[in-house]
Amino acid sequence: MIGKGTPPSTANRDAAFDELVRKLQEWKIPSKALDRIHDGAKASLTEVRALTEYEDGKISRLLTIIAFLSAVVGAVFTRFATDYPWPGFQAPATNCLSALTIAAYLAFFAYVLLVTASVLFILGAVKPQFNVPKSWSNSARQGLPPSMLFYERILDVTAPDWGEAFVKLGTGDGDDLKAYYARCYIAESYLVAGKVAEKLRVLSPGVGALRIAMGILLLFFFLFGANVMFVGSPQAVSGPRSLTAATSEPTASPQAPAAVSTSRSVMPTAPAAPIAAPTVPPAATPAMPTDSPTEQAAPPTLQK
Asked: Residue 6, SS3?
């Protein structure tokens, strides 16, 4: 369907454009109205071109916002995943509060999917494309380019023919050249307007998906806060436990109790330490039997 701001189908567009070009070629522009028609047609083309550039500017700002949010949300989710690891789908059977953690993970993944889909739609809207009817290349008069403005139609003729077009149309007072430009302005204004409608048609679902993603992002932040308030962070619990384990490590080692017990036993039994040493008396007793044979052998020599 043509009209109502919707882009026509390819067949309808080609047929409508052929009819437009035919009427423009048959139109004998009055010389008195030539200036006004030329200026009005040029103003129409300028406006629709400014509109498509304005939409491109809005799209670039949307992409900037998406990039900034992606960086912030990525950092927030990294913190969340560190404090609240994935509990598994079976965790709510034993701990109902773990459902908040699961919901936060699902909300984040839904946000990522919707943002990715919106970016695909937005990039599809800004991709380089031209609304070019198939029959446009044959719509001009012999020896003249189909358009004096669009690069593809200019290249449909050779360089000498491009220059010859100005020679043919610019002879005399140049009204023919001005009238030809007016026809080109009118035709291409319609084509650019169709391009704007196609761009908005593709862009609208992307913006809708991005709005839904923003709502899911708010839900993720809400679930993040609920996890902080109601769900105990395993990372936060393991921190104090590891600290107490580090401080009690000397007493937990198998050698530490022996050292402590010996130090405690030495202090009260310090006076009895000489009695507990068995090495001094046995060292003196075995030395006496070794010297006794020499002392018994001396008396017989003196008697002789």
From this structure: strand
Asked if 175 and 34 count as a contact pair (C-beta separation under 8 A), the reply is yes
The dihedral over CA atoms of 4, 10, 11, 16, expressed in degrees to the nearest 10, equals 50
Whether the CB-CB separation of 5 and 150 falls below 8 Å is answered with: no
Alpha-carbon span 265 to 54, nearest angstrom: 90
Q: What's the pLDDT tens digit per position in 12-53?
A: 777 888 888 889 888 999 989 999 999 999 999 999 999 989
196 pLDDT higher than 80? yes
- Which are the contacts of 104, defined by CB distance < 8 A and separation ≥ 6? 80, 84, 220, 223, 224, 226, 227
Distance, CA of 123 to CA of 196 (rounded, Å): 15
In angstroms, the Cα distances linking 83 to 64, 218, 231, 233, 245 are 29, 19, 10, 6, 20
Residue range 102-145, pLDDT digits in tens = 999 999 999 999 999 999 999 888 887 777 777 776 555 567 88
Residue/partner pairs of 238-247 with CB below 8 Å, 24 or more apart: none
Q: Is this model's pTM higher than 0.90 or not?
A: no
Q: Give the whole-angstrom CA distance, residue 57 versus residue 52.
A: 9
Q: What span, in angstroms and rounded, lies between the C-alpha atoms of 163 and 181?
A: 15
For the record, the structure tokens of 29 come out as: 């522009």
Q: Are 148 and 154 in contact (CB under 8 A)?
A: yes
